[in-house]
Amino acid sequence: MMTPLAPTMPPNPAPSETAAARPAQSKTGQTDWPAESLQDLLAQLKQAESEAVANATANTSPKRLVEPAAPDLGKVNVITVMSSKGGVGKSTIAANLAAGLTQLGRSVLVVDLDPQNALIHHLQPQSPRPVEDAASGIANASESASDWRSLCVATAAGPALLPHGLIEENERQAFEQHLDSDRYWLGRHLEAMGLADGAVVILDTPPGPSPYLRQALAITHQAIVVSLPDAASYTALPLAEKLIRSYVGERDDFKGCRYVINQVDRSRQLNRDVSLIMQQTLGERLVGMIHRDQSVSDALAYNRTAVEQEAHGQGFQDLVRFAETLMGQLPCASEGSATL
């Protein structure tokens, strides 16, 4: 006679297995079989096994990093000046915009995020910097220095300047790695400064994609793209918008990008044609056309802005008009916000 096989059951029932799926022993020693059908019990066991596998997978899966909270910059207006390629006069535009907004009554802080450290040559300090401070800036400041006010340089043109600082190549590489790993490094330091409502922060960035531009666009409210009216600059404009979409993301407080065409030369046919094409393509997003003007270049030789020394050429007038246009697009400053 064939010996009947004993029913097989999982040696260690899963914790989620229901009591109905297991035969219970009554006080009389007889098994109280569950009322469900075998099909229902098999389905319960299958579900219990699936839940056990899912729980085990969840416990062994790598933890997802929590996105750090964005800094609270209150009602500060953060503007990033950027370009797709170098040599377009981006720092000149940033310095003159800062000087122009200051003359119009706004409190302005300019942050040099470009390793070239060029803004210190556009905005002359009110008083000579001590030798030990001549090369200092945000790039070589200690991370423990939470308040950057001690790094600010008062300039003759009016805006406060946070220089980038001069660092060695190995220091630059380490600094950029740090920026890549800490998305809101810049935003946290600006937040710690306690800037007044209505203040304008202008961020000057190096051309093209970089950790510096990523830091800027993570907190900026609008971007100003500077371009020349030539073929190379025109073909590079889509890159600027792609970078903005990539770095800004879906932030509700980002008001979009505007464009400035620099060094417009009406005496050159191609220059005029490309300028016209840009005007037609950009429409209202074009907020400035700056004509080529030798007085703007001459101002740099004296560490001054064209706005500051009140040149009388077409380029100077364009820069003033550009600052006035942008001023009209900024939210009104609250009373008592004249200082940073």
TrEMBL record:
CDD domains (UniProt xref): ParAB_family
Disordered as annotated region, ranges: 1-33
SUPFAM superfamilies: P-loop containing nucleoside triphosphate hydrolases
Domain of life per record: Bacteria
Descriptive protein name: Cellulose biosynthesis protein BcsQ
Gene: bcsQ
